[in-house]
Each structure stands twice: as C-alpha cells, then as structure tokens.
Amino acid sequence: MPTDPAREVGHRIAATRRARRMTQADLAAAAYVSPATIKAIERGARHPSDDTLESIAEALDVDPSRLAAGSSRSDSRVHHAMPAISAAIAAYDLPAGSPARPLPQLAADVAALVGWRLGAQYARIAACAPRLLEETLAALHHAASRERPRAARLVATTARAADAVAYKSGHHDLSARLVELMRWAAVQSEDPVTAATAAYVRCETFFAARAHTQGLRALELAIDAAPSPVGPAAAARGALHMRAAVIAARAEDADAAMVHLAEARRLGDTVPEDAYDGTAFGPDSVRAHEVSVAVSLGRDHLQRALDVADEWTPPEHLPAERQSGFWIELSRAQLWAGHTDDAFESLKVARHIAPQHTREHPWARDTAGTLRRLKRADAESLSHFAEWIGAV
C-alpha cells in the first residue's frame, strides 16, 4: 500500500523531536502551536499546513524538507528565490544605500548561513540570501578602509551560500555570476584563504560546463598561489588538492588524480576534521573524496569505492551535504557492480541525511531511474523514490 503522507511526516517529526530530547509540550511551545496539534500530527491524524510545518522545522532547527513527505514546498521556495538573488547582485559593483546594520550583526547572520549550507538546508538559505547579499554589499561599499577586508569576506561568504542553492538547483548561469562575485570580493578581502576558497568554488563552473581539463588547470594555478600550508592555510590548500583530484578524474587523468589525492591525504593528516573558512576538510573529508575520485574515473575503478565503503562510512560530524554526496556516489558504484539492492539503500540513506541535496543531484536521479528500470517488478518503495526524485 502507498505510504500515508501525513503518517510519514508525523513519524519524521516525532523522531527528530526525540533526537533533540524534546517532549511534545516542548516542541509545541517552541513552534507556537498547541500540544494537541503536535500530538495529532505525530500520530498521522493531521497533516500540517506549510506554515505549521515551517514553524515546527524552525523549532527543531532543521530544514522543512527533512520533515516533509515530499519536498515540493521547499523546492518551490528555493526555485522562486532565484530572481531575488539575481536582482540582489545585479549591480554588485555599484554603491547602494547605506547599510542598515553594523558588521557584527551581519557576521552573526552570515555565520548562520554557513551552518545551513553545511547542513544542506537550502530552503532556509533561499529565504535569507537576497537580503543578506544586499546588506553585505552595502556594508562593503560604505565601509571604512580598515573594515573593508572584513566586509569583503562577509560578501564572499554570503555569495558562496547563495551559490550552493543556485548550483544545486540547476541554476548554473546564476551560480557562475555568484562565483564571480565571490572572486571580486576575495580580491578586496586581502585574504589568501578567501581567495583559495573562491578558487575552490569556481570549480563548479567547470563541472557544469564539463570543462574538466580547464578546471584542473585553474585549480593547479590556485594551489600555486595558495598560502603556505600551516593551520587553516593547510586546510585551504588541502581542499584545493581534494577538488583537483575529483576534476582530474573527470578529465580521465588518473595520474593527476592520484597525485592530488595523495597530497590532500597528507595535508588532511595535519589538521583536525573541521570546516575551515566554510569548507569541510580533514581526514574524513579526504576519505569521502576517495570514493568520489574512484567513481569519477569510471567503472574500471569502482572496486576502490566499494573497498572504502567496506571499511569506512561518513561520521555524523561531517556536513550533511558531504555525507549525502558520499552515499550518492557509492550508490552509483554499487549499481555498476550489480548490487542493486545496496544501491537503493545508499540512495535512501542520502535522502534521509539531506533530502534537498539528494533530490537535486543528477547522479542520484540517474541512479534511481536506472534502478527502477532494472527492478520494474520490485518494491513499490523504489517507484515512490523515483517519482520523488523526478526520475520518472
């Protein structure tokens, strides 16, 4: 029988609430709804309205898509935000109105935006990014000389969060404009780590254009210009090597991929796993990229991806987007190896961790569609998944 959407939403809310060690009364108070409403929703007797679901999600500190049976509401909000983001950066190099808030207040909001990006909470980013782009740009244009580098870093960081939404939702032209804004702000930040981060993100434009050889060259130039690998600078350089390994693999340059992966591994061993300047880097991130490199190199290298997964899985402290990416890429390798049941399980794990990231990921959609064709007579849940991700 098809899954009851109201019951599915209720189960997700209840599970998330328990994980937060909240009672139903706690959640009701935090979401500004009645305890009776929470009880009815959790047992599946009532489907929450969009506004109620968003209030509950806010109280639980998750994106609404983590709770919804389908992600149509969150997906719609993300796509509808694109014109506002585009308008916010249309005249980024021209002075605008005076900033409404001081830099410390803006910095706090930008830090929240970074956390949402690492958690793949794209709907929350979409709701705030247009305003923050306008505010941080105004702050940069009106900043005193000594404050300009700090304001420029805030612009670059905000643009990166907005870019995550644009790129993941397929708005690649807007993504490219946001990347150029990042690069423009990075120059004014006078910070080599910010410049390295902009080069890391710029690689998306090469992935989107399938210009892998050119992307590898751009990353190698960025590595040459990166600061000496000490502390956070080691993470910045290591992240560039990590991404260079993947794009080299897409360019079918296995030797370059292995060289960059080895250097990323060496630098990863010198720093604890953390998010440096908004980019997760460390031993676990490098391990996840071993799977990405293997899958990018193609079917002849899939055993390496399977071997990594046999001995390691992403720990919970890794950003949700990186965790789900691992499971999506592993699913592709499992499909190629003929392990169709495992491939579907990996896709379901990816969806549980980061629904919006999974739904927008082209490899996840491709794998789900192939699985449905191969297992046409099998589980109804696979057909539901394929419909959810847009593979049918």
Walk me through this protein's architecture.
By secondary structure, this protein is mainly alpha-helical. The protein has 3 domains: 62 residues, 434 Repressor (Amino-terminal Domain) (Orthogonal Bundle); 118 residues; 107 residues. The protein contains 21 helices and 2 strands. Strands 1-2 form a two-stranded antiparallel sheet. α10 packs antiparallel against α11, α12 packs antiparallel against α13 and α17 runs antiparallel to α18. The chain is globular and about 60 Å long.
Radius of gyration: 21 Å
Spatial strand sequence of the major β-sheet: 1-2
**Overall spatial form:** globular
Tell me the number of helical segments per DSSP (H or I, 4 or more residues long): 21
Q: Give the N-terminus to C-terminus distance in angstroms.
A: 19 Å
The whole-number mean of residue pLDDT values reads 90
List the helices and strands in order: HHHHHHHHHHHHHHEEHHHHHHH
Q: Could you say which structural class the secondary elements and strand pairing correspond to?
A: mainly alpha
Helix content: over 70%
Overall number of strands: 2
How much of the sequence lies in strands comes to under 5%
Main β-sheet: number of strands, strand sense, barrel status?
Answer: 2 strands, antiparallel
Spans of at least 5 consecutive residues whose pLDDT stays below 50 are none
How many structural domains are formed by the residues?
A: 3
